[in-house]
Amino acid sequence: MKEIMKKNKRVTLVIIFTILIIAGLLDLKYEGLGYQLLPTTIQSYLNDIL
What we know:
Number of domains: 1
Number of strands: 0
Radius of gyration: 17 Å
Strand content: under 5%
Number of helices: 3
Shape: rod-shaped
Low-confidence stretches: none
Structural class: mainly alpha
Largest sheet: none
Distance between the termini: 46 Å
């Protein structure tokens, strides 16, 4: 029973981590709040990349 709970916990953590990565990338792409909080130099660098 404990092994099943550990597997489910690991899968849940991987899913949450993946969602956070995707949300961060979308925030940068659409210039969301996290993007606006960055310094201007980093914003211009990201604009050149994206």
